[in-house]
Structure formats: structure tokens, C-alpha cells
Amino acid sequence: MNSEQIATQFSPKLDLPYRYLLTGLGFLLASVIYLLLYPESLTGDYIRSRDTLILVHTFGLGFITSIMMGAMYQLLSVILQSPLFSERLGRWNYWIYISGLGGMLLSFFYDFNKINITGGLLAISLLIFVLNAGITILSSGKKDIIVAHVIVGVLSLFFVLVLGSLMAENILRGIFSDPMALIKAHLVLALFGWIIITTMGFSYKLIPMFMLSHGYPEHYSKISFYTMVPGVFIFSMAQFSEKLQAAEKVAFLFISAGVLFHLFQIHAIFKRRLRKRIEPQIFATILAEIFLLTGILLIPAGLNSDYSGHYFPFIFLLPGFAGLYVLGMMHKIVPFLEWYNKYSPGIGREKVPLTKDMIDESLIGPTVYLWFGSIIVIALGLWFSEGLAIRFGALAMLFSTSLFLWNILNVFRK
Question: pLDDT tens digits, residue range 146-183?
Fold first, then answer.
């Protein structure tokens, strides 16, 4: 693979994406340790307990969103073939983001009365990110299915921060008669709109790039997009009225169809690959897609169960699909970026290492399989409301995370 495909003359200096990527790794470790110490985070009252709020936001916002922000700062310039609107704004915003996120997590733990301040700071940072990415996209003038996914993902993030701000205000003032509607809509847009749709879009760029796929049909991705997007937004709006239950069911069918056609597109890409060997990094994305389908199919069962059963499908969707996808892609992207930064200028003039020499590939398989197994064990623990099983799964996830961090951080020593 040509490393210029993920790093071009339009790419920002690596300190910009790296600060978000490395921060995400720190929050990954923190979230796994928190689950190990407090397995009841997944067995308590539905998404309202302090421990659950801390865990979900540490993993979903601290880990997944930080990684996605870093990846977007790097990949937008590649996808759009134009520079980022403002690298300086991205660097300054990092400190607002970290202050807001860290402060919000501390507010969850110590003092909910500070949530309007810390949550407001976080909302400002996310808004700045949305504006920076949005202006970059609009300025490029590029229009394709990957850009469309990114636009919807960024718009979803905007609505997520709006709903999050309303939730924080409601905690302090109790101005909404049905706070669960806000929570559910917030969760739907965060998970499906921001995380899953954006990841789908990135996959249409990254999977063909790493598998050297050419000449594959793209119509499945377009069908997926035009069914998934209305499904997600209708599903989120349906949370605000019991009269929209029929619309919620139709929206769920749209989302399911969108996921199914997405899988057809990924299959089409794999069929036209030139690189026949499926590396463990890529195999991780295949397992992630299996978790995506599993999670979608389990949503009706999860919504109709009590307490911890609500989390059952989301374990497959958040740490399962999104988490495993990040693990796989980070093992590919970081070594390429670091190799490109350090060694590409010396090509033809001196001996340089191969990109595959930048990472210990023997550790990737165990990392992926341990993560996969941990998701299964945690899901079983949730289904049977068994805290010990959740803790055992969290321990396996901690081993996987340790291998992952060791391997990624060693890339910078090559």
C-alpha cells in the first residue's frame, strides 16, 4: 500500500491527530479499569446511575470519540484532497476538549451541580470541532458517499451535544417531564449517527486501501446510506412520543436494512481485493462487522428487557463493533503514519524499514481474540445478571488493552 494514501501534502502535522489518538488510548485504559472495579456499572438502573454515566462517557466519549476526532483530522484531508480549515484551532480546541471532558467525568463522580459548567465547556469544544470539520468539508466541494457519511456523522455529533446540554440543564432544573426521552435520543444519535455511520464511511475508504481492492460496485453503500440515515433520525425523534411507536418500528427496519446493505458493500470490497492474505488487523474489522449485525438484531430484545438487559445489544455495538474496529485500524494507521513521518524522506537515499516492521504483528492476534472473547463474556454476564462474569470479561479486556497499548506505543520507538 502506498502510505501517501493516508498522508498527503494536505495532511496536518502529526501532532494534531496524535494528541487526540493518544488521549483516546488513555481513556480506553481508564474505562476498562473502571469496569473491572465497578462491574455494577452495567447491572444498575438503566443509564442513570453514576457509575454507568462515568463508564459510558469514559469509553464512548473519552476513547471512541477522541480516536474518531484524531482520525478525522488526519483522514479528512485525504478524503477531500484539501487542507483542514484550521490546524491551529484543532490544537487549541484539544485543551478545551480535555478540560471539559475531564471536568464532566469528575462532576459525575463528585458533584452533579457542576455539570452545567463542565458539560458546557465540553459542548463548546465539540461545537468547535463540528465547525472546523464542517467548514473543511464545505470548502472542498467534494461530494461522494464517503463524504456524505462524514457529514451525517458530524451533524449527528452536533445534535448529540445539543441533547447533552439539555440533559445537563434538566439534571439541575428538572424542566422536562420525560427525561428518559432525552437520554434515549441522545444515545441513539451518539451511537448510530455519530459513531456507526461515521465508521461506515471511513470503512469505505480504509478497507479498500488496506486490501488493495479495485473495481468493486458501490451501489450497496448508497442504498445503506439512504436507508440508515432516515432510520436513525426517525428512531431518535420517536423517543419523544408514545404516539410514534409505529414510526420507531419502521425506523428500526430502516436501520437494519442499512446495516445489511453495508455488509453487502464490505463483502463486495473483499471480493475484489488483490491482497489475499487477511491480516489480523483486518480480521478485527470482520469480527467488528459481526458484532454490528448481532447488536442490531438484539435491539428489540434489549429494549423489552429490564435494567441490565437494556445494555445487552449496546455491548455488541459500542465496545464490540466500534471498539474492535478501532483496535484493528489503529494497528494499521499508526505504523503507517509514523513510518511516513520518519522514513519516507529517505526512500531511495538510504535503507529504511518496511511499514510492517513498525509494529509487532505477533501481538495483534492475541489482542483481537482477547477483546472478542471479553465482549462475549461480558454480554453473557449481562444476560444472566452475573457481576462476576462481567468482571472476568473486564479482566480479559484489560489484558487485550495492555497488549494493544504496548504495541502501539512501541511504534514511536522504532
Answer: 999 999 999 999 999 999 988 888 877 777 777 888 88
Q: Which residues contact 114 (CB under 8 A, 6 or more apart)?
A: 103, 106, 107
Whether 74 and 334 have beta carbons less than 8 Å apart is answered as no
- d(CA 400, CA 394) in angstroms, rounded, equals 10
Phi and psi at residue 385, in whole multiples of 5°? 50, 45
Separation CA 337–CA 74 (nearest Å): 10
Three-state secondary structure call for residue 213: strand
Cβ–Cβ < 8 Å for 204, 145: yes
CA distance 383 to 20: 34
Q: Which residues of 64-76 are buried (b: 16+ CB within 10 A; e: fewer)?
A: bbbbbbbbbbbbb
Lookup: cell for 50: 453514576
Beta strands (DSSP E) in 334-385 are none
Q: What is the pLDDT of residue 310?
A: 64
Q: What residue type is assigned to position 109 of the chain?
A: F
Q: What is the pLDDT of residues 264-306, one digit of tens each?
A: 999 999 999 999 899 999 999 999 999 999 999 988 775 555 5
Structural domains of the chain ordered from first start: 3-411 (1.20.210.10)
> How far is 217 from 196, CA to CA, in rounded Å?
22
Question: Read out DSSP for 46-57?
Answer: TTTSHHHHHHHH
Average pLDDT per run of 10 along the chain, which is 414 residues long? 57 92 97 93 67 93 97 91 92 96 92 85 96 94 93 96 88 77 91 97 94 94 97 93 86 96 97 92 96 91 56 90 96 90 73 83 96 95 86 97 96 86
67: left (phi over 0), alpha (psi -120 to 50) or beta: alpha
What is the rounded CA–CA span in Å between residue 330 and residue 310?
29
CA dihedral angle for residue 138, residue 144, residue 145, residue 150, rounded to 10 degrees: -20
Strand, coil or helix: 411: helix
The CB density around residue 245, as the number of other CB atoms within 10 Å, is 10
Q: Which three cell numbers stand for residue 57?
A: 462517557
